[in-house]
Amino acid sequence: MNGKIIKAQKELYYVESGNKIYMAKARGNFRKKGIKPLVGDDVKIDIQDEDNAYITEILERKNTIKRPNISNVDQMLVFITINDPPLNLYNLDKYLSMCEYEHIDVVIVLSKKDLATSEKINNLTDIYQKIGYTILTLDNYNDFPEDIIKEILQGKTSAVSGASGVGKSTFLNNLVENNLEIGEISEKLKRGKNTTRHTEIFTIENDTYIFDTPGFDSFDFDFLEDENNLNYTFREMADSNCRFNNCNHINEPDCEVKEKLANGQIAKSRYENYLMIFNELKDRRENKW
Ligand SMILES: Nc1nc2c(ncn2[C@@H]2O[C@H](COP(=O)(O)OP(=O)(O)OP(=O)(O)O)[C@@H](O)[C@H]2O)c(=O)[nH]1
Ligand SMILES: [Zn+2]
Q1: Is 128 helix (H, G, I), strand (E, B) or coil?
Q2: What ipTM goes with this model?
Q3: What does pTM read for this prediction?
Q4: Whose CA is nearest to atom 28 of ligand 1?
Q5: N or C: which terminal CB in the chain sees fewer CB atoms within 10 Å?
Q6: Alpha-carbon torsion 134, 140, 146, 152, what sign?
Q7: Over the stretch 188-233, which tens digit does the pLDDT of each residue have?
């Protein structure tokens, strides 16, 4: 039988399979290779009885994230606010770059819209929609667009990320406790909830999952080692017609990115953050820290 690990407690894994949950231990030969099952893993299990099973195989992972250590994230909901906490576009652009690199779809969630002027919201929305990102604007208390959220989550495994205080937990509570009808399975898990923090996935409906633990609040950029690959992770620069096809868009002649920057087609903030990350990566590579 195939299943998905939806919760881990030490060496015990909760595996959802065919609308049931099994408590499973690892027994496959992946253990000899030092591979540990992760929440999010799709696995093969050997069912022992109504409640118990063994994990015999971990199916190939689409990706893994380190903090928290989870796998198979299709989509990241990247939370930001304009005020409280103040917007940090550098962090946002870094997240976005990382998600491009890991092939994780992104939805930018602009939360606490009640605390921002519509002018600021529109300016921001403009920059990111223009380069193809979906931005969802919400107020967790007074404007929680359930149907749109459900549509965004449909059929995918999502995770949330963003700085402390941007409203991630409130959002997840809204989803899991009040609004969306959640499956029986999540209900069953909730009853067993204790105070220790462990990563869990909630089943919203068939094939629709969301991790309850925020991903990488403060990650470093150890996944991208060569600054010369950064240009591929900024959407508006990725397919440029520069004179050199490995153009980094910094000092090269006949650079389309710099032309677009000059005539306002590429946002100044995006380009500046690109440069900052580029220099950081270069520094790191040259000084090997
Ligand atoms: N005005 C307003 N306040 C909100 C909104 N969403 C959350 N808050 C408040 O903002 C504070 C932080 O919200 P959390 O949901 O705990 O934020 P978080 O991102 O989970 O923070 P960490 O757990 O530190 O990562 C709380 O006091 C919430 O009540 C919103 O849409 N509008
Ligand atoms: Zn260029």
Answers
A1: helix
A2: 0.98
A3: 0.88
A4: 167
A5: C
A6: positive
A7: 455 444 434 567 888 888 789 998 776 555 454 456 889 999 999 9
Q: Dig out the tokens for 205 from the structure.
A: 């409906």
- The pair of structure tokens assigned to 83 is 């005020």
Residue 145 CB–ligand 1 contact under 6 Å: no
- Residue labelled with tokens 């490995």: 246
214 lines ligand 1 (CB under 6 A): yes
Q: Which amino acid is at 183?
A: G
Strand segments, DSSP code E, in the chain are 2-9, 12-17, 20-26, 42-47, 52-58, 64-65, 70-71, 75-80, 105-110, 134-137, 157-161, 201-205, 208-211
pLDDT tens sequence across 82-119: 999 999 999 999 989 988 988 889 999 999 999 999 99
Helix, strand or coil, per DSSP, at residue 54: strand
**Ligand 2 centre distance from Cα of residue 253 (Å):** 8
In tens, the pLDDT along 17-75 reads 988 999 999 998 888 888 999 999 999 999 999 999 999 999 999 988 877 788 999 99
The bridge status of strand 75-80 relative to strand 157-161 is parallel
111 lines ligand 1 (CB under 6 A): yes
What residue type is assigned to position 48 of the chain?
Q
The token pair at 163 is: 């700085």
Q: Is the dihedral of CA 207, 208, 209, 215 positive or negative?
A: positive
Q: Tokens at residue 226, please?
A: 């060569």
